[in-house]
Amino acid sequence: MKHADIISRLSKRQKADLLTGKDFWSTLAIESAGIPSAYLADGSHGVRKQAAASDHLGLNASIPATCFPTAAGMANSWNEELGEEMGRALGEEAAAQKVNVLLGPGTNIKRNPLCGRNFEYFSEDPYLAGKMAASYIRGIQSTGISACIKHFALNSQEHRRMVIDSVADERTIRELYLTAFELAVKEGKTKTLMSSYNKVNGVYANENTHLMKDILRNEWGFDGVVITDWAGCNDRIEGLKVGNELEMPACRYGADNVYEALEAGTLSEDIADENLDRLIDLILTTDKAVQNASESFDTEAHHELARRCAEESMVLLKNEGGILPLYTGSRVCFIGDFAASPRFQGAGSSIVNPTKTENYLDEIKKYNMNYVGHASGFKHFGGKNAKLTEEALKLAASSDIVVYFAGLDELSEAEGIDRKNMKLPENQLDLFRELKKLGKKIVTVLFCGSPVELDVIEQSDAILHAYLTGQASPTALLNILSGKTCPSGKLAETYPYKYEDCSTSQLFHADDLISEYREGIFIGYRYYETAGINVRFPFGFGLSYTSFEYSSIHCDKNGVSFIIKNSGKTAGAETAQLYISRDSLNVIRPEKELKGFKKVFLQPGEEKEVFIPFNEYSFRVFNTLADEWQTEGGEYKILIGSSSQDIRLSTEISISGGETDFYTDAAAIRKYFSADIKNISRQEFELLLGRNVEVPEYTYVNGRKNRIEIGYNNTVTELKYSGSFIGRIFSRGINFAHSFLWKTGNKTMANTLEMGMVHQPMRALAKFGGMNQNQLDGMIMIFNGNLMKGLRKFLAK
């Protein structure tokens, strides 16, 4: 151990206390042992160090910091160098605010477009997500502090996220949901990692031996610190045994449980010491960086960086007749509430208090455009308003081109809540229909952190998806609209025509206790292209104001090279994408898979040779029967594309490898070979899984289906089935308050209540409430109908 001398001076009580937080954001300091306190702060796209009372929902304001584009936006840049530059700025700001550990980036895979936190995640593709995450980490940790990738693993929904069981086969877990984390660990060398709330195949992630020890520690060689998500620890002792060093936030009964286990000998002191050694090392090494850091940073330089990031994050989806960039002689109006109230970030724990904000209505005056005015047109949070509609139509009638600012409001995409559908608000669609009747050219700008069903927006002459691209997004967008900047963003996720086209549309939220990943490896473009489902915009797609030609492909065992030429008249950037494809009768495979990419910037007429190397991820496939990564020998197609469906060059290469069995009965799971996901039964899924699906069941009271026994992991909403009238009243009161707030227009508070209370399990209420073990057990007794006994337990010292 590195710090055996320090650890030897600690009592068992001190050891137990060190392994949980001191408060909501800090670790415990033990000055007598030379251990300072470390501060942890949210920081997926900007530092969120709260200046006042701490919370995990983004309620209280934080110290000003640069709000960069969210991960969903930055992934569209496909620019690792820019990601590293942004990461370095994040690290500088964190160190300046005396933050030791920046909790980000979010590295989960976008299994379904309705996940409320998708704006915080990079992509549906693990290779792109992992490469971008690694770039962030390199930048953040170059300043001496620690990044913290999250949420490990299979945290694909917000609904009941603290208790849901994600059930998936080993190959799907390895290839789709762990590869991005693997890249972050091996290439980014992250110092910390956050475990997720959910179970994985029946075992909570924070105490999952297979995830935490077999894979993370033993296979990937991770020697850093694992932190629980806030109140995400189920069993503290089991978590320590698998190397989950730090429970956050401060948990009174968690520390007591550790101390009691050390005293009783049920937890080896050696295990506690190993965890402490890694934790102390993190605290000491990051403390040096924090103490030596400047207490200020260049806010203007970081704002300019945020603008560059935003420009590369926006994706031009449609541009009929070359309406963009806008002509200086055309009369242009802005319509839509988002022009006056820019939406540039998501909601929840990632909310950043920006150092600077911009407004489209002010910034447009700085551009050489014939701008004639703005009308809100619709209410921000939905609902019809005839006066706003009339004003918008009057302004549009006097214009040549309407720039329509549409999108999702802040309540639609938030931590703790999944979206209800993929639709845009009806009031926005209705206004667009009326605008279209005027016969004007319409450029629609979308502000949302994930795809939406376009509906009538499809009829726009141009569509620019601005995503949620940070505090400098107004000038970035205006630069693109005016032609000052050539758009170069490409989609990091597929845009389906409708939600029902998604492979997981029937599975997402299908059950409150279990989430079956029955689709296997077929999500996103892997599914659409294998199953032959038409999509509106494919993965990797994005238009430019210039054009690019590909030529001269050459492939050998080291990689593939080719030439890209800017054949247009405008300087621009192109992202070349390497896909690998193989026809196989032995292995379930998608039509193609992304295995590399490179972004190049070219002047008009300029050409460059591009080389994309092969690596350990290029040809591997996980063989569940053999429990190892293998390479299937044979011919592979090497595809170079401008998107997953726009393949410009192709060649073949022969790869040596084995010819082993991958399935015990391949014939019984033939639907997977053709990605016939919608027709796969649980029985067929179980064959892929290699075992029966164990569906959790409630423990019913006296056999009554409407009364359940309440335990540590039952949620507030489940208290409506409590055997105690107190539990039922408590649950119904919370649900009534949520409904009342929503119906009376206080939707922000309603969302906050849902995020922070409705789906919280009993153990989380105790952790956030600072309860000890007796109080937690007493509360549960009360909710199970043992009122007096529960009260005595709750009040006992």
SSE topology:
Blueprint: H1 4-8, H2 12-18, E1 40-42, H3 71-74, H4 80-96, E2 101-103, H5 126-141, E3 146-152, E4 165-167, H6 170-186, E5 192-195, E6 199-200, E7 203-204, H7 209-219, E8 225-228, H8 236-241, H9 252-264, H10 269-292, H11 299-313, E9 315-319, E10 331-335, H12 337-340, H13 360-363, E11 370-375, H14 386-397, E12 401-407, H15 426-436, E13 441-447, E14 462-465, H16 473-482, E15 495-496, E16 514-516, H17 524-531, E17 535-537, E18 548-556, E19 559-566, E20 572-581, E21 593-602, E22 607-613, E23 620-623, E24 628-631, E25 634-641, E26 647-655, H18 670-673, H19 682-689, E27 700-701, E28 704-708, H20 725-743, H21 747-758, H22 762-768, H23 773-783, H24 787-795
Parallel strand pairs: 1-2, 2-3, 3-5, 4-6, 4-16, 5-8, 10-11, 10-12, 12-13, 13-14
Antiparallel strand pairs: 6-7, 9-14, 15-17, 18-19, 19-22, 20-21, 20-25, 23-24, 25-26, 27-28
How does this model look, in words?
The protein has 797 residues and is of the alpha/beta class. It is 32% helix and 18% strand. The chain contains 24 helices and 28 strands. A six-stranded mixed sheet has the order 9-14-13-12-10-11. The protein has a five-stranded parallel sheet with strand order 1-2-3-5-8. Helix 23 packs antiparallel against helix 24. The two termini are 37 Å apart. The model has no long low-confidence stretch (mean pLDDT 94).
